[in-house]
Structure formats: C-alpha cells, structure tokens
Design goal:
The protein is built from nine helices and eight strands. It is of the alpha/beta class.
C-alpha cells in the first residue's frame, strides 16, 4: 500500500541522530512522501534544506501562533512568496489559546489572517493548528472565506467537526487515534473523501511515551479502515487521491 504523511516535524532535534533511518523505514513501509511543516523563520528554512537533501520530504512553510512576533511576519511572508514553488502547503498556522500565557489572542488572529490570505494568494492549501481555540479558528477561516483547509489534530466537539465537514474542509488524522477516542469519533463522522493522514512526528505516537515517525501513518490507515468498515487498501488509495486533489493537482 502507498501512504502519505501530510504533517511532520522532521527538523526536530529528536531526529538529529537517525533521520536517514527514519526515512528508510518510512519508504519501506510504503510512505510516498512526507510534508514537513515549518513553524517559524528558522524552521521554514530548515524544512527547505531538508527537502533539498531528501526527495521524499516536501515543504510546508508556516507561522506558529505562539513565540512568533507580529513585527516579523511580513518579512517572512515575502520569503515564502519567493519560495512558493518549493512548498505544497502553508502551515502550520492558526491559533493557540493554551500556550499563550499573555492571552494575546487578537495578535494571533491578525497573524492568522495574514497567513490565510497568503495561502489564498498563492493558491496553496493551509494547515490549521487550533489548540483550545477551535471555534475562533473556524470563525476566522469562514470570515476569510478559506476553502483549501486541513484541520490538523482537530480537537473540537462533534458540532464543530460537522461544521468543518459542511465547509468542505479536510482533517489530518494522527496515529494517536489508537489511544484517543476523540479521533475515532472524528473519523466516524468525517467522510472518507475529507480525511488525510499525518503523524505530527515526533509527537502523537500510537504508543504512549514513544517517538512518532512517518511510517506510523500505516497505523492510522488501519484504524480508519476498521472504523469505516473498509479495506486498508481502499483507505490508503482514497487518502492518496484526496492529497492529489488538494495539493498535487491544479
């Protein structure tokens, strides 16, 4: 079977010693490509460097809602525009109300809007981080009339999941689905045509206390297959088709 990981952080220091092995295991398991998500100026450049070193890695250039200055975002947007042909996705971007101790939510929203508009300008899908801010993130996306949207690791309630489905947005499901009922419920609600697979590696591993790797998308596919009562082959094929529809074709 062929798999895809639409969201990982392989530039993490947790992969410094064995990235070659990580990608070898991914390839052997059937992973076709991994989209590595930048979260800052530094991480975006590291992501670009990884993509030049490993053909399996594709780029997403983003701007994390926390620990990023509103004063620097315009400069970063210009850099992303310059390197637009090097990336598949704008992300991760969004809102984070859990980590922002200063409650600087309006500043987050301002930066979020700028990145949404960049995605629309470049005709790129956007991958959304919405921790403890699911409703506000959806409202901003709707106000900006965003269409090519991937809700990453979405923890909103059932009504918010259905709202995103009605908007035609996608959900990327991590391998932690094996131990979190929420993602099992989400997969039961969302049509297969709007599902994608991610790892958020090195986070959200299927086994607590371990490091997630791109090969773990196979775990997610197996779980989706069980919930949807489909074969693993059909799920993997459909998710690859979803990826091609969303960001591999124009």
């Amino acid at each position: 079977m062929q798999y895809v990981d639409v969201h990982a952080h392989l530039e993490s220091e947790r992969f410094e010693q064995d990235l070659d092995g990580v990608l070898k295991r991914a390839k052997e398991s059937g992973v076709q490509f991994v989209v590595n998500s930048g979260t800052s100026s530094e991480r975006n450049r590291e992501t670009l460097d990884l993509s030049k070193r490993y053909s399996m890695i594709k780029c997403a250039f983003g701007w994390y809602p926390v620990d990023n200055s509103p004063n620097n975002i315009d400069t970063e947007i210009k850099w992303i525009e310059k390197h637009k042909d090097d990336c598949l996705i704008i992300g991760e971007i969004g809102l984070d109300y859990q980590e922002d101790e200063e409650k600087n939510f309006e500043s987050q929203k301002e930066m979020f809007r700028k990145m949404i508009r960049l995605g629309k300008k470049l005709d790129k899908p956007i991958l959304i981080h919405s921790r403890k801010a699911e409703n506000d993130a959806i409202e901003v996306l709707e106000q900006e009339k965003a269409e090519k949207v991937i809700m990453h690791c979405f923890n909103g309630n059932v009504n918010l999941i259905k709202r995103c489905v009605q908007n035609g947005w996608y959900f990327s499901v991590p391998a932690v689905i094996t131990r979190l009922q929420h993602f099992q419920t989400l997969v039961g609600i969302v049509p297969i045509e709007q599902l994608l697979t991610e790892t958020d590696a090195p986070y959200l591993a299927p086994i607590a206390g371990t490091r997630s790797e791109p090969k773990d998308v196979a775990v997610t596919v197996r779980e989706i297959a069980k919930i949807k009562n489909l074969s693993g082959e059909n799920v993997a094929k459909k998710i690859l088709e979803n990826c091609e529809k969303l960001f591999l074709t124009k």
